[in-house]
Amino acid sequence: MRTMLATVIRGLRARGLLSAGSVLLTALAIGSAVLGPIFQVAVTSSYLVTRLDEAPNQLTGLTWTFDPSPGTTRTTYDAVQHAVDATDGGPGPYAAPQTSLESVRASALGGIAMLLATPDGGACAHLEVTGACPQQPGEVLMLGGDLRDTHHAIGDTITIDDPLGDVVVVGSYRVPPSAEDYWFDLGRFASTPRRTDERTGVVTPYTPAPFVTVPASFGELPVSAWSVRVDRRLVAPADLTIADIDDAQAAADALPIEQAAEVEGGRLSSTSINDIRAIAAEVRAQQRTAKASIAPAVLSLVLVALALLLRLLMAAADLRLPELALASLRGLSRRQMWALGLSEPITLLLLSVPTGAVVGIGLALGLVRWWLVPGLPLPLPWTAILAGGAVALAAIGVAVLAVGLVLRVSLSEQLTGVRRPRETSRTGLIVQLVLVAAAIAVLVSKLSGGKPGDPDVTDLVLPVLLAVVAGVAATRITAGGATWWTRARRRTRSLASFVAARAISRRQEGTLVILPVTAAIAICVFGAGVYGSAAQWRASVAATAAPAPVVWTSPLPMNRTVALTHTLDPDGRYLMAVSRLNTLGPTYTVADTSRLARVSSWQEQWTPGVPVEQVAAALALKADVPRVTGRRIGITVDQQLESDSDVYVRLRLGVEGDRAHYVFLGPFGAGTSSRAGAAPYCSKGCDLEGMTIGGPAALTAQMKGTLTISGIEVDGTPVTGGIDGAGWVRAPDSSAAEAVTDIRSSGDSLEVDIDSGGDRVIAQLASGALPTALPVVKGVDASTSAQAGSFGSTSSTEFAVDPVITAQSVPFLGPNGLLIDYKMLTTDRTIYEQKSTVYVLARSDAPKSVTQGLQDRGASISTTFAEVQHTLDQGAYALALRLYAVVAVLVLLMALAGLFVSTAVQLPARRRDAAALRVVGVPRGSVMSAVIREFAVVLGGTAVAGLAAGTLAQYVVLRTVTLGYVENLSTPALVAAVDVPRLLLLTAATALVFGTVALASAGLTVRGARGATLRENAR
């Protein structure tokens, strides 16, 4: 036993480089297996915490309304205590109750208003206050925008109907975004203007933001006139688990829905919109997907490590051939020979197991601390221990295989120390054919599959399978090609080429490195490609949900929001208004696209090759709508029409932030005449969007002939661009557009040929060169036609559209929406946008005066691009894919380490071959050239095969997986494109590394190639 131990130690020391490499690779394989399950559990927990932290309070928290009972509640303090007692405690990780006092709504300022206070009177500490903070009952703060819009000032008294009574405005306020947790829901401070449903006539009154006051104001009101709002935020500590969410879900499910419960001191009813169930389902879905995505990364790392380990153990066993031959001559039995052969590998394995455990846990700890939420505890699931043990057993199997291959060598070959090349065994050939057939079958199934979905078994197997097949193919092609070359080119003039080809065909040690290095390169390319593509996809998803650095929700309708952004940001550098428009067919994102390039987070992969500036230009009006500024507008007309009544002209004037206004001018008799009308609303500017020519009876008449408009004036001054350059055309939506047979613009005159054909019609004109079909950016999955039987429309207007650009995604709607320009849509057209959500997109560097202006109008930050992207980047699947980047680096490092060790092991044999050539007179340069050419062929074929296999696997897999959690139809699809610059960079890096290895090996080979080398005992 002591002799065996001494022999093992002496052998390990003699082959120190191989021993160190074997320990390193085995430790990395075991560490990778341990890392996978730990990281999978950790990323799920991290995503859970991040997702809950960044979800709106309304979706994760609980909200109640407590109505105090007049018979048992005497003060607001009593009511608050009763409300807290009724809602405190219970299951779930919820914070202590936050309370506020809210009054009923009563008529004021032409709308309905309410009072709000915090029980501790500290509301001002969480608001940006201008003026004084309320101190006495009846003193209030008003939202800054409401104060201006209602033409009031600090110090004014506002009358509110009973039971609230008069209040005195002592200051104004804004709600900072940082106060969201305190107020639970910033949307409660929105101010909504009066709205009228154009179809139903239903009027929604003006609702100013709450008047903030002191608790004492509620003490003077009847108990029935106010209530206590109770909010409880969900708290997500770093050690929160998916099991804890079950408690939170149980608490949310236990809330009464639309019914009040009798509690001490009053009645308690739930007003929560809690959706913790959907979030929990999403987390569990991500957990499953993360587990599926981590498996191939870990598997590929383990397989490459084992393949390289087999190569190194075989090299070590080859070096032990004389030792094994001597043992055989001494009469050792078969069992003793196996014991001797396995003694060194088993010793290395015993050293590798604890090292691998330390590597895996240490790497997991580093990744958790670096990538995941702070304070997250490091899990150690039993699956990690099981996986590490399985890889250790696999390493033993690799050692047995390596030793068995050496023990099969005949005694004569063991004594000579030379391994002759052998033909591939029948079993090996069958295995190779099976691998090729499996690769082809998986490729065909993936390329002929359906829509993208979650990763399945084929996605896990394909990258590894292609890597192995590419390595086997490269090995056989390289060796077979070299053999053919040496047989067919014996009379070649290039001695270096012949020597290199003969060395490749006869030295198996050189070609054995092809398989593991090819697999390593393929998996590296695949891992880097998937990681990069997933990052680009998440950026695309984030830009769809948050199309700008900051997204504000506006309580104003679209026309007033556009006016607000133009007022606050007249140069269009920071703000942009956007809304969603539903029709009986498509759904549109309506945007002020003149600001699209400067404000939005438009993604290049949405419209490859088409920059955002070109997108905005394609959607914009092709002519400038005339701008008129004044109080009185008039036109000069040369009327040459045959008409059965007087001719009138109606002007449509678009007022920013207001409805369209009309000015009726006429009558215009035969010949030239001028008429003017009052337009006081144009004192600050109007857009002359359209003109209608007709008679007095409902603006209809029978007309035929030519009408020439020779001048447009405002307050007696000609309007610049009123005719020339205004793009006057027949109104696209006019039912009588055929009545206008021709329009000619010449300088400052506009000639309109009209022929009603005997029907009583009107002639309608529009400026801006409006096309018949409005240009839109079409999402790849969007429809441009109306859907029969759709009754969810918020717009009664239908219009033809022309998809001028197809995009992978459009803001807010993704691949299922259309993007249209607001000016293009609303010029000479009335759009009803009831129930449409309106947003303001803003740059992150918008000045404080601009953001304060939005807050004054009750706008609140809905989300930011950074927040959405951070949530996506912290998703369980996204975090799991980061492991691919780690795998790409580790597998490449392992391949390089294996290559260096293998090259170093081959160096003595190469020196002997080079010395033999030098003895017979071959020049030094030819010997070095032969070595370089040998490495160039072997490593070049390895690099090409690895890059091709990795790129193919990346392309195929990306076509069939989602690479993330698809929330809804607005999620853009993954673009399965190969990143050519990244591939070229990897190719250049591979060529540089392999070229360096070839030159260094050639230099070392020639340097040590002396005649004396032939007399050395290389073993």
Percent of residues in helices comes to: 40-55%
Largest sheet: 8 strands, mixed
How many H/I helices? 27
Strand content: 15-25%
Kindly name the structural category: alpha+beta
List how many beta strands DSSP finds: 35
> Distance N terminus to C terminus?
25 Å
User: Biggest sheet, strands in spatial order?
Assistant: 32-31-33-18-17-34-16-35
What shape does the CA trace take? flat
Radius of gyration in whole Å, from Cα?
A: 39 Å
pLDDT < 50 stretches: 787-796
Question: What is the average per-residue confidence, as pLDDT, rounded to a whole number?
Answer: 77
What is the count of structural domains?
5
Topology diagram in text:
Layout: H1 2-14, H2 16-54, H3 57-60, E1 62-68, H4 76-87, E2 98-103, E3 106-108, E4 111-113, E5 115-117, E6 128-131, E7 139-143, H5 144-149, E8 157-158, E9 167-174, H6 180-183, E10 195-196, E11 203-204, E12 211-212, H7 216-219, E13 226-232, H8 242-253, E14 260-263, E15 266-270, H9 276-319, H10 321-329, H11 334-371, H12 382-407, H13 411-416, H14 426-447, H15 457-488, H16 495-506, H17 508-512, H18 514-545, E16 550-554, H19 558-568, E17 575-582, E18 587-591, H20 596-599, H21 612-619, E19 627-628, E20 632-643, E21 647-654, E22 661-668, E23 671-678, E24 686-694, E25 703-714, E26 717-718, E27 729-730, E28 740-746, E29 749-755, E30 763-766, E31 774-779, E32 801-807, E33 818-821, H22 822-826, E34 838-842, H23 848-856, E35 860-864, H24 865-873, H25 876-919, H26 924-960, H27 980-1007
Parallel strand pairs: 5-12, 7-9, 18-33, 31-32
Antiparallel strand pairs: 1-13, 1-15, 2-5, 2-13, 3-4, 6-9, 8-9, 10-11, 14-15, 16-34, 16-35, 17-18, 17-34, 19-24, 20-23, 20-25, 21-22, 21-24, 24-30, 25-26, 25-29, 27-30, 28-29, 31-33
Helix pairs in contact: 1-11, 2-9, 2-11, 2-12, 2-25, 8-9, 9-12, 9-15, 9-18, 9-25, 11-12, 14-15, 15-16, 15-18, 15-26, 16-26, 18-24, 18-25, 18-26, 25-27, 26-27
